[in-house]
Amino acid sequence: xxxxxxxxxxxxxxxxxxxxxxxxxxxxxxxxxxxxxxxxxxxxxxxxxxxxxxxxxxxxxxxxxxxxxxxxxxxxxxxxxxxxxxxxxxxxxxxxxxxxxxxxxxxxxxxxxxxxxxxxxxxxxxxxxxxxx
Amino acid sequence: xxxxxxxxxxxxxxxxxxxxxxxxxxxxxxxxxxxxxxxxxxxxxxxxxxxxxxxxxxxxxxxxxxxxxxxxxxxxxxxxxxxxxxxxxxxxxxxxxxxxxxxxxxxxxxxxxxxxxxxxxxxxxxxxxxxxxxxxxxxxxxxxxxxxxxxxxxxxxxxxxxxxxxxxxxxxxxxxxxxxxxxxxxxxxxxxxxxxxxxxxxxxxxxxxxxxxxxxxxxxxxxxxxxxxxxxxxxxxxxxxxxxxxxxxxxxxxxxxxxxxxxxxxxxxxxxxxxxxxxxxxxxxxxxxxxxxxxxxxxxxxxxxxxxxxxxxxxxxxxxxxxxxxxxxxxxxxxxxxxxxxxxxxxxxxxxxxxxxxxxxxxxxxxxxxxxxxxxxxxxxxxxxxxxxxxxxxxxxxxxxxxxxxxxxxxxxxxxxxxxxxxxxxxxxxxxxxxxxxxxxxxxxxxxxxxxxxxxxxxxxxxxxxxxxxxxxxxxxxxxxxxxxxxxxxxxxxxxxxxxxxxxxxxxxxxxxxxxxxxxxxxxxxxxxxxxxxxxxxxxxxxxxxxxxxxxxxxxxxxxxxxxxxxxxxxxxxxxxxxxxxxxxxxxxxxxxxxxxxxxxxxxxxxxxxxxxxxxxxxxx
Lengths: 133, 621
Description:
Distance between the termini of chain A: 26 Å
Oligomer: heterodimer
Strand order of the largest sheet of chain B: 4-3-5-7-6
Radius of gyration of chain A: 17 Å
Distance between the termini of chain B: 82 Å
Largest interface: A-B, 57 and 62 residues
Largest sheet of chain B: 5 strands, mixed
Helix content of chain B: 55-70%
């Protein structure tokens, strides 16, 4: 199998791994940008990505019962639900610390995706999901 | 090696795709739509580049778009229809086409206009800023502060993203929320008895027919996304499932019981040892997710959770949804949240008075002036025709599905249940719009069945029919959605000026020509209550129009201003456009008022910028 064919064959199998890596790296990068109070398009883009998929991906990647096609919608839904819930409860409890809340959420998201990544590395990236069952 | 669904395998169970012959990578064959899509988008983009927003007239954006833009739209729609009726559906191509169509329908205004459309957009921006300014809510200010989910989320987002105001991205909200809504709709539609092709056709019809404009930066936009999400979760795991069969005796061993517990909690791979028996029950983790999402929906938007509840109740009563107790749990959540807020809502929106007034609740909001101009009537006709076209298409699709022996009940229930809202609330005259909004996706699913079960054998005919349908819908969409842009468009200079006024002014009562300006675009919006001067049921309504004399205006303003506060009269060019469009004031009437106030004793010019004039009547005067 030539190199192009290998890459094409691996991508569909390994994209959840890439998403885990993106979740960990993106979350960490955003944490650094927020902590250093660096503004600009990079921070805005990462914040949007975190809003739409950060916490949600950390959940669905550790949720083996979910079908592959459900994961995109599932991670967006779970992200929006969790972030809205936490922000609103903080307001209701008069504990409005958006940056502090974000730091906790980002930390947990990195942990979730990182946990799955580490577990997957332990198993090896090898065979596709279906044949692992 | 890649994954594919094996023939006959349940949805989501993936198997390795057979290797290409000779281990050579499969080649992507270029097809006609691969050229049509970029060509259509390029023509559309060229058209946008030639569009001069300063020429916006009474017929809105459609009247000033050059012909090349419409040629681009036609090419894009042809490409969509072609791609929808390929022998083998190509998800990548379909997603690209859908993204292109979304950009044309919902991204074009964001490209052309420097600020977001709709005056009411600026109020939601103000509430987000209020949250970040005060770090708390005040439930006595308005209903938004009682349903704060959306505002809390975006106040949090602005701080994390380092953005000063949602004004920076608000104009892109329609495109963003439509894209998210489509993702969730696609998810929900996968739980319905539709073919893949029907699902894709519905995904194209829905955005092209969604003229309601509730996808701007607002709680309703997020509410729509969450509603789709809740329904998606429930339709996947709770809809139309047969009763669970008794587990075979072999499944009673400790190992199988443990596996069954994990499966019911939703934390085990599908297809595990007990999956066949357990799938009939909704896993606990899924139940928890749906309940949590519904709870968030409940405090995000006032109306959406009731429509979802109506849809689920109807499905449960007809035996198309389980577990039924979840419907009761949802009712407890939504009414439990409403109970402590009921007196506020009833006092301001008269819930008890409107219950049962179905025909009164159906009525759209009253005209703010003496009557619509021909341009407004044209846009309204386009909305009615578009709604009717979707209804007819859904009816034809229903009949064809029914005659083919395919299930229609669940889709019909989902499309019809939102009507129940009309028995309870007029929702400020917008209930009928929300009914259309919530019925549309399921009507689109029904309409997608128009071509019948054997359409794949007559693809040319079906593709032509699809193109015709999309063309009719898109043609009506433009005047329906963009037809009033002369009113809904706000020049950047005016928005900047109004923000500047809010930043520097002492809190006081605002008397605006009408509400068509960037009102409340400040975190201090509660310190500047707004009264309208022109229009129906306003201070200077036609029924009781007072002479535009200085003393009469002063008398009126002082009567409505709390003691010790200044009063402001705010007049903008966009207000005059609105007043003229709806015949709430004569052309030039606001300029006459400005000239009167310029000479009036006690009044001073507090702020002036291109298109914006603010007069102040100080408390000590």
